[in-house]
Amino acid sequence: MRSLSCIMFVLICSVGILAQSPHGNLLKIDCANCHESSNWKIIPKDIKFDHNAETAFKLTGQHASVSCQSCHKSLVFSEVKSQCISCHKDVHQKSVGTNCVQCHNTDSWIVVNIIQIHQNGRFPLMGVHLNVDCQSCHSGYANLYFPAQSVSCYSCHKQQYLATTAPNHIQANFSTDCQTCHNLTDFNWGNTNFDHSFFPLVGGHNIQNCFACHAPGSNFKGLTTDCYSCHKQNYLTAKNPDHIAANFSTNCVDCHNTMSFTSLIAAAKFNHNDTGFPLTGVHANLQCAQCHASGYTNTSAACVSCHLKDYNAAATPVNHVAAGLPQTCGDCHSIAAPFTTTTFNHSTTGFALTGFHTTISCESCHKGSVSGTPTDCYSCHAADYAGTTDPNHAAQGFSHTCSQCHTTTNWDGASVDHTALGFPLTGEHANLQCAQCHTSGYINTSTACVSCHLKDYNAAATPVNHVAAGLPQTCGDCHSIAAPFTTTTFNHSTTGFALTGFHTTISCESCHKGSVSGTPTDCYSCHAADYAGTTDPNHAAQGFSHTCSQCHTTTNWDGASVDHTALGFPLTGEHANLQCAQCHTSGYINTSTACVSCHLKDYNAAATPVNHVAAGLPQTCGDCHSIAAPFTTTTFNHATTGFALTGFHTTISCESCHKGSVSGTSTLCYTCHTADYAGTTNPPHQSAGYPTDCTQCHTTTAWTPSTFNHTMYFPLTGSHNTACANCHQTISNFAAHSCNAICHKDAHHQNEDCYTCHPTGQGD
Questions:
Q1: Which of these, 135, 136, 138, 154, lies nearest to 146 by C-alpha position?
Q2: Dihedral of the CA atoms 162, 168, 172, 177 (nearest 10)?
Q3: CA nearest 360: which of 335, 383, 381, 391?
């Protein structure tokens, strides 16, 4: 039987070995796709393997007709590489890289698009380069060796650069960057495209012969762009006009341009606007020499430089010289019109001409001179002022400021803007004659009411005698200009005592006894008799406060209502339904707000939850009782004692813990639960020596089951997370928990500490 088993084992191993594919583990196709089932023979036409679909290397061109062995030298097909260079020799000697498909394809090794390949490279073939033979640039062309070539023109055309004499590139120190002047797209080396934008060749400068400006043999450098440097002879020979005699500027562009220099010599079109002196008006028709008599340089733009004779001879509107008029002609005269027309803007002097001032001659005000002319009306109109009799300005002392009543538009029909003088004429004042107020003239007339109404003030007897009461003479405090003096509008709020309720309907004399000063503002001063005579309740007998506003208002003296909240003791709960006398038994003054002042009997008689007197409870009733509910309901916040009531503690009576007194009560669990501790047998707390700190295992919510935090002593992890009795086998002693002695007794390790190797209790 054993012999048969060995034979079967050998057969199984042999089959396993023979079943391994010689093509490697990466080929996952069925063998029958290529091999016959009767033997391993391969018939190529019957092969079902699709190289294009099942691999990343498609068989195209000549690759489609070669035998598999040509590429797959090993039966492990995955070992073959897909790069061309792995099968094909690099005939270019690494000069063009190993990416053959850049130039070749699988159809043939012959390159048919050399030009296109070149266009995608560093040096696209353009112009004459399209027709040159490859060997002209690629010296290794015959050996198919194409190392990197410089793309700089000079690298191939150095000889042409050195041999060129028209112009001589070396002498002119021309750049070796041929493209600066020559174009790659041209088929003719002689065509140049030098960028002459630093000096545009336009107009007469658009010449093909460089040597017209650049002398043969020069180095094409240092040639100035100044016109005069080339056209000096034209400047010296110009006679129409004579540039030298006229001292013309040598900056030719002031008059000429490059379009037609020869024709402009005879008729230069100088733009006078560029000089800052446009030729407008009469100046536009003058000959140049009329102004430029001394040449064309530094010609003054001041009018007087040409028109001094006109200035000296001018006699209108005043003699210019005698009047000292400034020689800035443009202040009054315009270039567009003859000198007889003036356009002086008088507003620039600070005195704008309006009304009749715009129609009179300058001499009317400017007596022989324009400087120092006064701008006040009286200086010119003193005679008018002195001669006026309706009213007589001089006799009545009218102000010399004529503009207070007169305008430049109409001297007659004067009208005073009293508002501008700070005293608007409104109400009764609007209908008065001027002389009614201005009895002593029109100068410094007082605007104080009493200056006109002193008699009215002295005679006034209502609402009080003004003189006797010492009322101020500022009539506007009580009276209005819009209404007769019989109507007063005094704002009593300005005194600090606003009139409200019945105070608004009584006469002033009711409070102000002959004088308005020193009148008291407290209610009792006026209402002492009312206070003394009130019997319901009797204010005097019961000692009511003299501050009447605590109960009364100015709107309704009867129906007094005390705002107890304002007194600091809101009437809420049971207090809201009491009669005043129930609390104010000894009067209404200094009534205590302490609960015990009314409820001492209730305190002394209280026996629940403990006898208040015996237990020494404080007499601050609000600690436990609420005004909103009877005294039978307490709301004491036990958390304020440092011992918050939680769990079952919230349901037991106060007496359960407070034995006759609330002071000195212990907060330790054991104090109340000593009997529970001693009577517990599962496990026996007392005999096992359990700590008396019950909170280590118990809570106020549920005494059982306990929740001992074993981590404080010994974390219960791994196999130790088990029932207590499995380790604490001595019920009477929960301190016994030696590993070897009790749970893990092992003769081989009896003298060792288990935790040396088993720190968490695992692996035992």
A1: 138
A2: -50
A3: 381
Q: Whose CA is closest to 566, among 547, 582, 584, 581?
A: 547
Alpha carbon distance 462, 508 (integer Å): 9
Q: Tokens representing 217?
A: 């043999």
Mapped to the 3 state alphabet, what secondary structure does 73-140 carry? Answer: CCCCHHHCCCCHHHCCCCCCCCCCCCCHHHCCCCCCCCCCCHHHHHHCCCCCCCHHHHCCCHHHCCCC
> Which tokens hold the place of 696?
């280590």
Integer Cα distance of 453 and 443 in angstroms: 19
435 exposure class (CB count in 10 Å sphere: 0-12, 13-18, 19+): exposed
Buried b (16+ CB within 10 A) or exposed e, 254-278: ebbebeebeebbeebeeeeeeeeee
What is each CA distance from 522 to 32, 144, 556, in whole angstroms?
Answer: 125, 125, 17
Count CB neighbours of 196 within 10 A. 11
Domain edges within the chain: 2-82, 709-764
Q: How far apart (Å, rounded) are the C-alpha atoms in residues 577 and 591? A: 18
Token duo for residue 347: 């507003």
**Secondary structure class of 488 (helix, strand, coil):** strand
CA dihedral 200, 202, 206, 212 (to 10 degrees): -60
- Give the separation between CA 650 and CA 505, rounded to whole angstroms: 65
User: CA 325, CA 8: separation in Å to the nearest integer?
Assistant: 143
Q: For residue 638, give the nearest of 613, 597, 609 by alpha carbon.
A: 609
10-residue stretch averages of pLDDT, the chain, 764 residues long: 42 45 82 83 80 87 87 86 87 87 87 84 86 86 87 89 83 83 80 79 80 73 83 84 79 79 51 80 81 78 88 82 83 76 81 89 78 88 89 84 86 82 85 83 84 89 80 84 74 88 85 80 90 86 84 84 83 85 80 88 84 83 79 79 88 80 84 90 81 87 81 78 76 67 60 60 45
User: Alpha-carbon torsion 289, 291, 294, 298, what sign?
Assistant: negative
Instruction: Name the nearest CA neighbour of 362 among 314, 312, 414.
Output: 314
- Do residues 33 and 49 lie in contact, with contact meaning Cβ atoms separated by under 8 Å? yes
SS3 634: strand
Beta bridge partners of 681: 684
> CA-to-CA distance for 480 and 500, rounded, in angstroms?
22
* 3-class DSSP assignment, residue 14: helix
Three-point CA angle 493, 494, 497, nearest 5°: 45
Residue that is written with structure tokens 């001032």 in the block: 357
Integer angstrom CA distances of residue 373 from 327, 362, 364, 379, 403:
19, 11, 11, 9, 18
Q: DSSP string spanning 259-287? A: S-HHHHHHS----GGGGT----GGGGGS-
The encoded tokens of residue 711 equal 């981590």
Count helices and strands in the chain by DSSP H and E runs = 20, 0
Nearest one of 546, 551, 552, 542 to 529, comparing CA atoms: 546
What is the C-alpha separation between 445 and 456, in angstroms, rounded? 19
Cα–Cα distance, 346 to 373 (Å, whole number): 13
Q: Using CA of residue 565, residue 570, residue 571, residue 575, what is the dihedral sign?
A: negative
CB count in 10 Å sphere of residue 318: 19
